[in-house]
Amino acid sequence: QEERIINQGHDQAKGTPNLENKLQKMKTATDASHHIQNAMLCHTQLASLRNESLLLKILTPEQTALFLEYMKKNKERIRSIMDRKLRSGAPRGDNIEASMGANNAESESTLGEVCRQLEDMRLHLENMNG
Q1: Which of 34, 67, 104, 125 could form a disulfide with 100 if both were Cys (CB 3.0 to 4.6 A apart)?
Q2: pLDDT (tens digit, 9 = 90+) per residue, 81-90?
Q3: CA distance 3 to 11
Q4: CA-CA distance, 97 to 104, in Å (whole number)?
Protein backbone atom coordinates (compact mmCIF):
# COMPACT_ATOMS: atom_id res chain seq x y z
CA GLN A 1 0.00 0.00 0.00
CA GLU A 2 2.88 2.43 0.82
CA GLU A 3 4.46 1.70 -2.53
CA ARG A 4 1.16 2.34 -4.30
CA ILE A 5 0.79 5.71 -2.56
CA ILE A 6 4.38 6.66 -3.43
CA ASN A 7 3.88 5.68 -7.06
CA GLN A 8 0.60 7.58 -7.20
CA GLY A 9 2.30 10.73 -5.82
CA HIS A 10 5.17 10.30 -8.27
CA ASP A 11 2.76 10.00 -11.19
CA GLN A 12 0.88 13.11 -10.08
CA ALA A 13 4.15 15.04 -9.78
CA LYS A 14 5.18 13.97 -13.28
CA GLY A 15 1.82 15.12 -14.62
CA THR A 16 2.08 18.57 -13.01
CA PRO A 17 2.55 21.24 -15.68
CA ASN A 18 5.63 23.44 -15.24
CA LEU A 19 6.89 21.32 -12.33
CA GLU A 20 10.52 22.41 -12.77
CA ASN A 21 9.50 26.06 -12.91
CA LYS A 22 7.37 25.72 -9.76
CA LEU A 23 10.17 23.90 -7.91
CA GLN A 24 12.63 26.63 -8.91
CA LYS A 25 10.25 29.31 -7.62
CA MET A 26 9.87 27.42 -4.34
CA LYS A 27 13.65 27.20 -4.00
CA THR A 28 14.02 30.91 -4.74
CA ALA A 29 11.37 31.78 -2.17
CA THR A 30 13.02 29.55 0.44
CA ASP A 31 16.44 31.07 -0.25
CA ALA A 32 15.02 34.59 -0.01
CA SER A 33 13.38 33.71 3.29
CA HIS A 34 16.69 32.45 4.69
CA HIS A 35 18.49 35.60 3.51
CA ILE A 36 15.88 37.81 5.15
CA GLN A 37 16.16 35.83 8.37
CA ASN A 38 19.95 36.21 8.39
CA ALA A 39 19.67 39.92 7.62
CA MET A 40 17.26 40.42 10.52
CA LEU A 41 19.60 38.54 12.88
CA CYS A 42 22.52 40.72 11.80
CA HIS A 43 20.43 43.87 12.15
CA THR A 44 19.33 42.83 15.66
CA GLN A 45 22.92 42.12 16.72
CA LEU A 46 24.13 45.46 15.34
CA ALA A 47 21.32 47.33 17.10
CA SER A 48 22.15 45.55 20.35
CA LEU A 49 25.84 46.45 20.05
CA ARG A 50 24.98 50.05 19.19
CA ASN A 51 22.67 50.35 22.19
CA GLU A 52 25.29 48.82 24.47
CA SER A 53 28.00 51.18 23.24
CA LEU A 54 25.68 54.17 23.66
CA LEU A 55 24.86 53.07 27.20
CA LEU A 56 28.55 52.67 28.03
CA LYS A 57 29.26 56.16 26.64
CA ILE A 58 26.82 57.83 29.04
CA LEU A 59 28.06 55.98 32.13
CA THR A 60 31.07 57.04 34.15
CA PRO A 61 34.03 54.62 34.04
CA GLU A 62 33.08 53.38 37.52
CA GLN A 63 29.46 52.81 36.48
CA THR A 64 30.63 51.09 33.31
CA ALA A 65 32.77 48.67 35.32
CA LEU A 66 29.86 47.96 37.66
CA PHE A 67 27.47 47.53 34.74
CA LEU A 68 29.79 45.08 32.98
CA GLU A 69 30.23 43.17 36.23
CA TYR A 70 26.45 43.07 36.67
CA MET A 71 25.98 41.86 33.09
CA LYS A 72 28.57 39.14 33.57
CA LYS A 73 26.97 37.90 36.79
CA ASN A 74 23.41 38.03 35.44
CA LYS A 75 23.94 37.05 31.82
CA GLU A 76 21.61 34.04 31.84
CA ARG A 77 18.94 35.81 33.87
CA ILE A 78 18.96 38.80 31.51
CA ARG A 79 18.83 36.51 28.48
CA SER A 80 15.85 34.57 29.86
CA ILE A 81 13.97 37.80 30.66
CA MET A 82 14.62 39.15 27.17
CA ASP A 83 13.58 35.83 25.59
CA ARG A 84 10.32 35.90 27.54
CA LYS A 85 9.70 39.50 26.47
CA LEU A 86 10.37 38.72 22.83
CA ARG A 87 8.11 35.64 22.90
CA SER A 88 5.30 37.54 24.61
CA GLY A 89 5.51 40.33 22.04
CA ALA A 90 6.18 42.98 24.69
CA PRO A 91 6.42 46.51 23.33
CA ARG A 92 9.87 47.86 22.58
CA GLY A 93 11.26 51.30 23.04
CA ASP A 94 11.77 53.92 25.70
CA ASN A 95 8.41 53.34 27.36
CA ILE A 96 8.96 49.67 28.13
CA GLU A 97 9.20 50.30 31.88
CA ALA A 98 5.76 51.91 31.92
CA SER A 99 4.28 49.10 29.84
CA MET A 100 5.56 46.50 32.30
CA GLY A 101 3.91 48.07 35.33
CA ALA A 102 5.48 49.04 38.65
CA ASN A 103 4.58 45.81 40.47
CA ASN A 104 5.82 43.48 37.75
CA ALA A 105 8.70 41.22 38.86
CA GLU A 106 10.33 41.75 35.50
CA SER A 107 10.78 45.48 36.26
CA GLU A 108 14.21 44.50 37.56
CA SER A 109 15.36 44.47 33.94
CA THR A 110 14.58 48.14 33.27
CA LEU A 111 17.34 50.68 32.76
CA GLY A 112 16.31 52.53 35.92
CA GLU A 113 16.51 49.36 37.97
CA VAL A 114 19.89 48.44 36.46
CA CYS A 115 21.20 51.91 37.34
CA ARG A 116 19.85 51.56 40.88
CA GLN A 117 21.55 48.19 41.24
CA LEU A 118 24.78 49.65 39.86
CA GLU A 119 24.62 52.45 42.40
CA ASP A 120 23.95 49.93 45.19
CA MET A 121 26.98 47.90 44.06
CA ARG A 122 29.11 51.06 44.02
CA LEU A 123 28.03 51.98 47.54
CA HIS A 124 28.67 48.44 48.71
CA LEU A 125 32.17 48.49 47.22
CA GLU A 126 32.86 51.87 48.83
CA ASN A 127 31.74 50.51 52.21
CA MET A 128 33.95 47.45 51.81
CA ASN A 129 36.98 49.53 50.86
CA GLY A 130 36.46 52.13 53.27
Answers
A1: 104
A2: 878 877 886 5
A3: 12
A4: 10
Burial of 109 from C-beta contacts in 10 A (0-12 / 13-18 / 19+):
buried
Question: Does the model's pTM come out above 0.90?
Answer: no
The residue type found at 123 is L
Q: How far is CA 28 from CA 9, 11, 13, 41, 60, in A?
A: 23, 25, 19, 20, 50
Asked if 81 and 109 count as a contact pair (C-beta separation under 8 A), the reply is yes
Q: State yes or no: pLDDT of 92 exceeds 70.
A: no
Between CA 93 and CA 71 the distance in angstroms is 20
Q: What is the maximum span of the chain, computed from C-alpha positions, in angstroms?
A: 85
Residues 80, 70: contact at Cβ < 8 Å?
A: no
